[in-house]
From TrEMBL:
Pfam families: Methyltransf_23. It comes from Pycnococcus provasolii. This is Methyltransferase domain-containing protein. It comes from the Eukaryota.
């Protein structure tokens, strides 16, 4: 990409993302104000213990810090985009008017439960309903004031074969991947939006995705159908399409084994597998099983990519507060932040390759030995 083109791409990127952060920050503020107004109208106090509400000064400080984090995340992600390492696109729909309206309801309910210190899920339905699948993206992006997409795009460089030299694969192999149908697997695909980013960059890939929640499974299929409609011109040039499997990432889905595993094993020819924002939700045994699944999925020389929240010692100034995310009814989060992920993957047979962080997320990349 030339300097002029890269500069124009950078300008478009930052314009889009500053608007994005403004929109999500406004949504978050509106949700908080709506909660405050409805609480005042009820003129009731929750029974039992309550959580102290933040002062305006504390809210302003938190908002300022979140804005700085977002700008730093955009700077890192934007450099990658401007350099042509991967593409970003708009129009994935999480800020559509119906989603924003659902978020307002979700925000007031979540803040009410937080204030009342209710022992149940802080997230409506525990993220296990059609409603929760419709508000997940906009709720989490509001929490991160719009930077979640930028952090999730950490997954793209290894999938785009920028680990080619480490893998012993040359430029011809990279070109073949982008113009043929490499098999790509996403474990715990959630709403499927991240998969559409992957397909934006690997439109010819044979994309496969697994998720256990029936609600998120259906949401993922819907998001990919929308992507296929939006990107129809690319699909017409030979994209291999998407395949979805409603199952656990800890075991071999029988349907998948029948379709893709000629010798009874599944994804024996998969070149790339990735898992994003999942391990902090899992107990240790489930993490171990998921890593074994990733290893089994890959052909020798294949790439496994892990993206999740940062851990202890990744950003030492944050170590004192990093565990607070566990207060959002995340029972395995504090165990996750102290887990030796490198050792976990090495025990499964992987070779560690590299690490990259962006804001409160990090990526680890691994190779299956040849």
């Amino acid at each position: 990409m030339g300097a002029g083109e890269g500069g124009r791409t950078s300008q478009r990127y930052f314009a889009a993302h500053l608007l994005r952060t403004s929109a999500f920050a406004s949504l978050g503020a509106a949700g908080f104000l709506t909660h405050a107004a409805t609480s005042a109208m009820r003129m009731t106090t929750p029974a039992g213990p309550t959580i102290a509400q933040p002062t305006p000064a504390a809210l302003a400080d938190a908002g300022y810090r979140a804005l700085l984090e977002a700008l730093a995340a955009y700077r890192q992600d934007g450099r990658r985009v401007a350099a042509g390492d991967y593409a970003f696109s708009v129009g994935h729909g999480e800020l559509a008017t119906p989603a924003a309206a659902r978020f307002m309801f979700e925000a007031t309910q979540t803040l009410r439960r937080r204030r009342a210190a209710e022992p149940g899920n802080q997230w409506t339905d525990g993220w296990l309903s059609t409603h929760s699948s419709e508000v997940y993206e906009i709720s989490t992006e509001s929490l991160f004031v719009g930077r979640q997409d930028a952090m999730q795009r950490l997954v793209l460089p290894p999938l785009m074969d920028q680990l080619a030299n480490v893998a012993g694969r040359g430029a011809s192999d990279v070109q073949q991947d982008q113009h043929s149908s490499p098999r790509v697997l996403e474990l715990a695909c959630g709403t499927g939006r991240l998969g559409t980013f992957v397909r934006d960059n690997l439109p010819y890939a044979e994309y496969h995705a697994v998720d256990l929640s029936p609600f998120y499974f259906e949401r993922a299929r819907s998001n990919h159908r929308a992507w296929e409609k939006l990107r129809g011109a690319k699909l017409a040039r030979g994209a291999a399409g998407a395949h979805f499997y409603h199952d656990s990432i800890e075991r071999v889905p029988d349907e998948l084994a029948r379709v893709l595993g000629d010798d009874g094993r599944w994804f024996v020819a998969c070149r790339k597998v990735y898992c994003v924002y999942t391990f902090h939700e899992l107990p240790m045994k489930a993490r171990e099983a998921a890593v074994r699944t990733m290893f089994q999925a890959l052909k020798p020389g294949g790439v496994a990519v892990f993206v999740d929240r940062i851990q202890l010692d990744d950003r030492e100034p944050l170590d004192r507060s990093i565990g607070r995310f566990g207060d959002f009814n995340e029972p395995h989060y504090r165990g996750y932040i102290s887990t030796d992920l490198g050792a976990l993957f090495e025990r499964a047979g992987f070779a560690c390759v590299e690490k990259e962080m962006n804001s409160s997320s990090k990526r680890l990349s691994f190779m299956k030995p040849t």
